From TrEMBL:
Cofactor(s) of this protein: Mg(2+)
GO cellular component: a single term: cytoplasm
The organism's taxonomic lineage, starting at the top: Bacteria, Pseudomonadati, Verrucomicrobiota, Opitutia, Opitutia incertae sedis
Superkingdom: Bacteria
Naturally occurring in which organism (per UniProt): Candidatus Spyradosoma merdigallinarum
GO BP terms: terpenoid biosynthetic process
NCBIfam families associated with the record: FPPsyn
Family: Belongs to the FPP/GGPP synthase family.
PROSITE patterns: POLYPRENYL_SYNTHASE_1
Pfam families: polyprenyl_synt
Protein name: Polyprenyl synthetase family protein
Length: 294
């Protein structure tokens, strides 16, 4: 399998689905919907929806995974908009162009993020209304990942970490919740939409794959913040060190960070093998997360 081509094809499907399943930018209030679309359609790797597609493909069913992909990307994009705000990371660029609050206004960016978060759950409820148990499960997967004990909690610890004690335990907590939580949700949602969606053991293993892949993804991201340039990354680099953020390279050095990312990836791949099914896309995607350059 040509994983790069498969990723491009999947990303193109997600891009088309975003246009279908989100409010038109000319709908009233136009400025708000323009801000939402501006951030949603800014490109990016679409890793989370691709993981969802790969999981759904492992045990295919008749359910369309694309609305769930869009919901997941709406929620992820809301976190990026809010992360870039002056009260958080104060980032002027995102994916090589002005961040939402720089392109529009700070208040509008805040509301665009709020609207994307809300739309994510409305979309899941509406698109999967014909299979209520699936809809409830998808909403729960995403809500659990995005709440105070996971994604938002990880963000809080990350913010505190800028001024607090730098420990490996705190770093693991941040990575597990701020980053890995949404990758866990992506895989759980994808498998839930598949032919074995009611298999609790499978869903638990999916979350474990997401946890390992998410940790590896964040470590690689931290490494690239040190080693890559802004043009390649599409965002400012060396920002973590400047903000005194807790990262693996800062705590352990680059070599040990690379080793840790490889260990998490190997664990995720072993779990993919245990699941079976048509898992070539999923395994290839997990490997690609380790080998990425931006």
């Amino acid at each position: 399998m040509d994983i790069a081509e498969k990723m491009r094809e999947g990303a193109a499907r997600v891009e088309a689905a975003i246009l279908r399943w989100t409010p038109d930018e000319n709908a009233r209030p136009r400025e708000l919907h323009r801000a939402m679309r501006y951030s949603l359609c800014a490109g990016g790797k679409r890793i989370r929806p691709l993981l969802l597609l790969a999981a759904a493909e492992t045990f295919p069913s008749e359910l369309d995974p694309l609305p769930a992909c869009v919901a997941l990307e709406c929620l992820h994009t809301y976190t990026l908009i809010h992360d870039d705000l002056p009260c958080m990371d104060d980032a002027d660029t995102r994916r090589g162009r002005p961040s939402c609050h720089k392109k529009f206004r700070e208040d509008l960016a805040l509301l665009a993020g709020d609207a994307l978060l809300t739309h994510a759950f409305a979309l899941l409820a509406q698109a999967y209304a014909g299979t209520p148990a699936v809809a409830v499960g998808l909403v729960a997967d995403l809500a659990d990942a995005a709440g105070s004990r996971r994604l938002i909690g990880g963000q809080v610890e990350d913010t505190i970490g800028e001024a607090g004690e730098m420990t490996s335990e705190r770093l693991d907590y941040i990575h597990e919740n701020k980053t890995a939580a949404l990758l866990e949700a992506a895989l759980a949602m994808g498998f839930r939409l598949g032919a074995r969606g009611e298999d609790a053991a499978l869903l638990e293993k999916a979350r474990e794959i997401g946890s390992c892949a998410g940790r590896a993804f964040q470590i690689v991201d931290d490494i690239l913040d040190v080693t890559a340039d802004a043009a390649t990354m599409g965002k400012p680099v060396r920002a973590d060190a400047a903000a005194h953020k807790l990262t693996y390279p800062g705590l352990c050095g680059l070599e040990k960070s690379r080793e840790r990312a490889a260990e998490y990836t190997a664990r995720a791949l072993r779990l993919c093998g245990e699941i079976g099914g048509n898992g070539a896309f999923l395994s290839g995607l997990v490997r690609a997360l380790l080998e990425r350059k931006n």
